[in-house]
UniProtKB/TrEMBL annotation:
Belongs to the sulfatase family. Residues 34-394 form the Sulfatase N-terminal domain. This is Sulfatase. Coiled coil: none annotated.
Length: 481
């Protein structure tokens, strides 16, 4: 009897040992999955030293580029915050308005049709802790309501374990989104200066608080060795109004900025617009298209805002290294779209010209073979979701409409693929040689990027066969959505 009990106890103990060993193995395998750090920067055109702008001070982002692959020809899928972030966060083409993710949330709430999971939701299902800080979806903090802080109206249901937006003295996320120094919020646009520089440290503008919260979250997440993390951080600058501490503006004293290329308003029908977002602010009666000295000031303040944003990126990357999590973390830096600084006589985004759609993207991860490499492979924002899945060993969802860039990361000389974008009732396709823009009524713009004219001369009437070929390719792509 005693012998039987002893054998039973030994068997139970052995079974428990095996079970614990298996559980420990399972947890270890989960912990060994790479973390993801996604840094989103608002209104960031590829005006960085690592992207050829030698006059810009962007040392932290440039250091990231030295540790990874910088995609010199990355194009977003929409020239506006909301729909561009929709494609990033869902891996699918979607509505063209800034409320794209809220529309998706409404459909989820109805429960009448199947809605594919978002990227953070997908990673959460594979054992990741998902956290967002700052402006990751269209509203900083990911909530709706009058001041964007109503927790009953969530922009991305089921996506984040935490979705955080430190507002500091700006009172609420809406106030911080367009905040200037020391708590100034946008009440009446015409009474808020289009640019500003003020003495003080980084916390006198909202991104200082966002970076500090991101650092705190990294510290906490890196201590959990049982679950990998997916941390997304959204930096607001250089979004309008262009505000940054004076120390960043001073970096551009005496710096010569290059001439604005093709600054004339285009002839004929295009997606040109009157720069309404920019002109709503107080400009002291100045028009940068007519006043060269004012245009220069605008550009310098945009540059200062980039350097300020770069400093916040630096704090986040420094904390990643301090915790040691950098040894097992994939880092993606992504600009949500471009921004005209006088090209085509536009000051802003919202066109389907190159300047609105071209933004920087950098991917870095431990052990990658191709560090400090620039690639001219053409890629689009839609590719980020499947790429992160491929790099982490997470299943690539069948609904993702982009392509994994892992092969380009391994061989940056590969060519990539055409990039699609849309805004309102107009869509465009960018190939290695041309851009075709198709209006709803059938009107076509075709630009030849192999010539010096580029996007200043519509050559559609000279290339009818190419027009038809690209129209078909564009329409086929968009029908996937």
């Amino acid at each position: 009897m005693k012998k039987g009990i002893l054998l039973l106890l030994i068997a139970l103990a052995f079974g428990s040992f095996i079970s614990c060993k298996e559980n420990k193995k399972e947890m270890t395998e989960t912990a060994q999955k790479p973390n993801v750090l996604l840094i989103c920067v608002d209104d960031l055109r590829p005006e960085l030293k690592s992207f050829g702008a030698s006059y810009i001070s962007s040392s932290n982002i440039d250091q990231l580029a030295q540790n990874g692959v910088s995609f010199q020809k990355h194009f977003v899928n929409a020239p506006s915050c909301g729909p561009s972030r929709y494609t990033l966060l869902t891996g699918k083409y979607g509505p063209a308005g800034n409320n794209a993710l809220f529309l998706r949330a409404n459909e989820l709430a109805k429960g009448t049709e199947k809605i594919d999971p978002s990227m953070p939701e997908w990673f959460k299902a594979y054992g990741y802790t998902t956290v967002s800080v700052g402006k990751v979806s269209h509203h900083p903090g990911g909530r709706g309501g009058e001041n964007w802080n109503d927790s009953s109206i969530v922009e991305m249901p089921n996506a984040w374990d935490k979705h955080l937006m430190p507002v500091s003295e700006w009172e609420h996320p809406r106030g911080a989104m367009h905040g200037l120094a020391n708590g100034e919020t946008r009440i009446k646009s015409s009474e808020m200066d289009v640019y500003q520089t003020t003495e003080g440290d980084d916390t006198i503008y909202p991104d200082g608080a966002i970076a500090n919260e991101a650092v705190a979250q990294l510290g906490a997440l890196s201590m959990n060795d049982k679950k990998p993390f997916f941390l997304a951080v959204g930096i607001i600058r250089p979004h309008l109004p262009f505000g940054a501490p004076k120390s960043y503006f001073d970096q551009y004293e005496g710096v010569e900025l290059p001439p604005i290329p093709h600054p004339q308003k285009p002839e004929g029908r295009t997606t040109w617009h009157g720069s309404g977002e920019f002109k709503q602010y107080n400009r002291w009666g100045n028009d940068p298209n007519e006043d060269k000295s004012f245009a220069e000031e605008v550009r310098r303040h945009y540059a200062a805002a980039i350097s300020y944003a770069d400093a916040q990126v630096g704090k986040i990357l420094a904390e990643l290294a301090r915790t040691g999590a950098d040894k097992n973390t994939i880092v993606v830096l992504w600009g949500d779209h471009g921004w005209h600084l006088g090209e085509h006589a536009i000051w802003g985004k919202h066109s389907l010209f190159e300047e609105s759609l071209h933004s920087p993207m950098i991917i870095s991860y431990p052990g990658m073979d191709q560090k400090d490499t620039k690639t001219d492979a053409m890629v689009e924002t839609l590719d980020i979701f499947p790429t992160l899945c491929d790099l982490t060993g997470v299943e690539i969802p069948k609904f993702a409409q982009g392509e994994s860039l892992k092969n380009i990361l391994n061989n940056p000389t590969k060519k990539g693929h055409p990039a699609i974008a849309y805004y309102k009732d107009v869509s465009t396709i960018r190939t290695a040689t041309h851009r075709l823009t198709l209006h709803k009524d059938g009107f076509v713009e075709l630009y030849d990027h192999t010539t010096k004219d580029r996007e200043t001369k519509n050559v559609a009437d000279k290339h009818p066969e190419l027009v038809e070929k690209l129209k078909q390719e564009l329409q086929n792509k968009l029908q996937q959505g």
